[in-house]
Amino acid sequence: MPGLEARSVHKRFDGRVVLQGVDLSVDRGLVTILLGANGSGKSTLIRCLTGLERIDAGEVWVAGERTDGLRGSDLRRSRRRVAVVFQQFNIIGNVSVFQNVLNGAMGRVPFGVLGVLAPLAPGRLREKAMYCLARVGLADRADHPARTLSGGQQQRVAIARALMQEAEVVIADEPVASLDPEAGRAVMDLLVTVAREDGMAVLVSLHQLGLVEQYGDRTVGLKAGRVDFDTRFEAVPRDRMEALYLEDAVAQTSLEDSA
Ligand SMILES: Nc1ncnc2c1ncn2[C@@H]1O[C@H](COP(=O)(O)OP(=O)(O)OP(=O)(O)O)[C@@H](O)[C@H]1O
C-alpha cells in the first residue's frame, strides 16, 4: 500500500483548471520527486495532498485512508500523519528549536490547544525530542531561538519535527530553494534518511535537476496540471525533460512580449 496517493485529482481556481486528473503514488521508503515549470501546478497538488486545499474531483489517500472528504477532527487527525517542510520555513522563529520539535507531538499526545511548554513536557517526550534533534545534527542548538538558525538548519528542524510527529508521509515543497548547495544537500540527505530508515513516503518538489538525479528514486514530471512522466530520472528522455521547462520559457516570453 503506498504512503500517499492521488487518484485522478482535479482542481480549478475561479473556473481555471490547474490540475487535470493527476495520478500519483508515493511509496514508503522512497523519495519521489515532483518536477515542473513554474505554474505547472506542483504547489497546488501538494496543498491538495496535505488537505490544505479541497479538490474538485478525484481521491487522495494517505496510508490506506481516503482523506479528501474528511473534515473537522478527522481532517486534523489525518493531517498529523503527513508532515510538511515548506520553502518558507514553517517553524516558529521566536521559540526554541527544542520547542519547535516538541510541537510535532501536538495532537498525538493530549497537549492543550496551545501545546505544552518545554519545561512541563513529560520526560519521555523531552527525551524523544532531543533524540529527533540529534538525528538531524542539531542537538547542540536545542535552546537557541529557532530564528537564529540558518535556513538549512531551520529545514532540518522541520524534519526533526516530522520525526517527532511520527508522520508516515513527508511532503517538502521546494525545501532547498533558498539554500546554498551544501545546505541543500544536507536537507536532501536527511529526507533520504527518513525514507530509508523510518520508512516514510517522501514527496519533494524541486527545480534543481542535479539533485533530482542524485536523490530521486522516482521522478514525476507535471506539465500544465497533468502527469507527463513518472519513472526513474535516467529513464526520462532528454527532450521530454527539456520540453517540461521549455513551455514555461515560451509562456514567459509571450507574457513579456504582451506586457
Ligand atoms: N489560491 C489560488 N487562487 C487562484 N489561482 C491559484 C491559486 N493557487 C495557485 N493558483 C494558480 O494555479 C497555477 C499553478 O500554481 P502552482 O503554485 O500550483 O504552480 P507551481 O508549479 O507550484 O509553480 P512554482 O514552481 O512557480 O511554485 C498558477 O497559474 C497559479 O496562479
TrEMBL record:
SUPFAM superfamilies: P-loop containing nucleoside triphosphate hydrolases
Pfam family, one: ABC_tran
Residue ranges of domain ABC transporter in the record: 4-249
Subcellular localization, as worded in the UniProt entry: Cell inner membrane
Membrane topology: Peripheral membrane protein
Entry annotated with the keyword Nucleotide-binding: yes
Gene3D superfamilies referenced in this protein's UniProt entry, alphabetically: P-loop containing nucleotide triphosphate hydrolases
Signal sequence segment: none
PROSITE patterns: ABC_TRANSPORTER_1, ABC_TRANSPORTER_2
InterPro entries per UniProt: AAA+_ATPase (IPR003593), ABC_transporter-like_ATP-bd (IPR003439), ABC_transporter-like_CS (IPR017871), MetN_ABC_transporter-like (IPR050086), P-loop_NTPase (IPR027417)
GO MF terms, alphabetically ordered: ATP binding; ATP hydrolysis activity
Protein's recorded name: Phosphonate transport system ATP-binding protein
Organismal lineage: Bacteria, Pseudomonadati, Pseudomonadota, Gammaproteobacteria, Chromatiales
